[in-house]
Amino acid sequence: MEAGSNTYQKGEVKVEEIIKSNEKRTNTKTITRNTRSAKSTSSSDTTVTDTTNIDSSRNTTSKKTANNSRTTKTKKTTSSADSPKREDMLPIRLQNVSKLVGAHVSITGGVQNSILNSLAIGANAFALFLRNQRTWKSTPLDPKVITAFRENCIENNYQPNCILPHGSYLINLGNPDKTKREKSYEAFLEDLRRCESLGIERYNFHPGSSVGGCSTEQSITYIAECINKAHQETNNVICVIENMAGSGYVIGSKFKELADIISRVNDKDRVGVCIDTCHAFAAGYDLRTSKAYEKTMEKFSNIVGFKYLKGMHLNDSLTDLGSNRDRHANIGKGYMGLEPFRLIMNDDRLNGIPLILETPTEQGDEYQKEIELLYELVGKSDLSQVKLPDDFVQGQQVKGNNSGKRIQSSILDFGSKKKKKDDSTDED
Ligand SMILES: [Zn+2]
Ligand SMILES: [Zn+2]
């Protein structure tokens, strides 16, 4: 997604909205929650009028990967006095899974709400902003908020390895202008300190841009110098560099550039990368077939190395391979299609790291549906085995149907030209 647009605002999911939408959709009470293995053999398990005892249809002894149905099993509430509790309206969250799938969620009302918003979509991982990402100003975190965040994580079993905060869009550590770079560094350091106070171990940020004012090489050196300095001023947070789509003077669209930053960082234990699938695809790394996927992953392995992979952003692309444009599409509905995500969900090298959706949301429940869809892909050796939602059409957002148009128009077009005059980068 692109800075300056309000796509992120729209994309942010609020727990109350989800609950309301669940209430509206079903007018029923969810009777299973926070349990996996809720699979039913019924073909109509998305209907909401089932009044049978769903517990009896649960196969609680099934194997871990055999059972990925996360259908929100519901039961009609007959008594008005038996009004559903908020917890009961939450979708099923799969437990003990090797793939930690989640989304970028809202912090409206305080960072502690990110956990509630993650529960509302059945997420096993989440991303968040640590403050208003579009201004330099920030107020210190309230100690009560810090406590609430930590408590919410513990209570709901969100471990540090499933949290991947996203840095401010304004930060450009590769800026050749010393004053601007120092201002970016201060914001970067502030973000890292926030992570540490919240108990967060990974911090995802955009490497930066030379803004056409110096060589790529020099800009990479500036970025690495900032990371080294920040390491000395903080204790343990890992700086996770995101790959970029490749527009303008932005650093990091090539795996080699990510590796070059890492090579200049002294403490290799505290640096990592986050691969955004849309950005990789837009930068020319194909993932659409098993052969292409393996080739790309082999390149990544040889140039960067999987030990540095600390998270992924799962996004389809509204533009074609090598477009250098950063425009996210919903999973399976863009130029990439569903196959790359099936390959990802069955790739053991990607276990135990946050896999974060940053896809367009219009209805408010897209993240929940996409998390369900992604888990449905686990254990499937080809797409014909996958039970797709009724309204699902691969690539539909690039074929110009209504849904695609609606999403396209919600994203500001920054284009892919060498154009940025200021020091901000424009993807997320
Ligand atoms: Zn993006
Ligand atoms: Zn990003």
Summarize the structure.
The chain has 428 residues and is an alpha/beta fold. It is built from twelve helices and eleven strands. It binds zinc ion (2 copies).
Structural write-up:
The chain is an alpha/beta fold and 428 residues long. It has a single domain (7-14, 96-409), classed as Divalent-metal-dependent TIM barrel enzymes (TIM Barrel, Alpha-Beta Barrel). It is 31% helix and 10% strand. It is built from twelve helices and eleven strands. Helix 3 (113-119) links the parallel strand 3 and strand 4. Helix 5 (178-198) crosses helix 6 (216-233) and helix 6 (216-233) packs across helix 7. The protein is globular, with a radius of gyration of 21 Å. Residues 1-13, 25-80 and 402-427 have low confidence and may be disordered. Bound molecules: zinc ion (2 copies). The site of one zinc ion has 4 residues, from loops.
Q: CATH fold name, please?
A: TIM Barrel
- CATH class wording: Alpha Beta
Strand arrangement in the largest pleated sheet? 4-3-11-8-7-6-5
Average pLDDT works out at 81
Sheet with most strands? 7 strands, parallel
Can you list the ligands bound to this structure?
A: zinc ion
Structural class: alpha/beta
Shape: globular
What do we call the CATH homologous superfamily? Divalent-metal-dependent TIM barrel enzymes
| Succession of helices and strands | HHEEEHEHHEHEHEHHEEEHEHH
Tell me what the CATH architecture is: Alpha-Beta Barrel
How many β strands by DSSP? Answer: 11
- Strand content range: 5-15%
How many helices? The count is 12
Helix content: 25-40%
How many domains, as an integer? 1
Low-pLDDT residue spans: 1-13, 25-80, 402-427
Radius of gyration: 21 Å
Q: Gap between N and C termini, in Å? A: 5 Å
Biased composition (Polar residues): 394-411
Cofactor: Zn(2+)
GO cellular component, one term: nucleus
Biased composition (Basic and acidic residues): 11-26
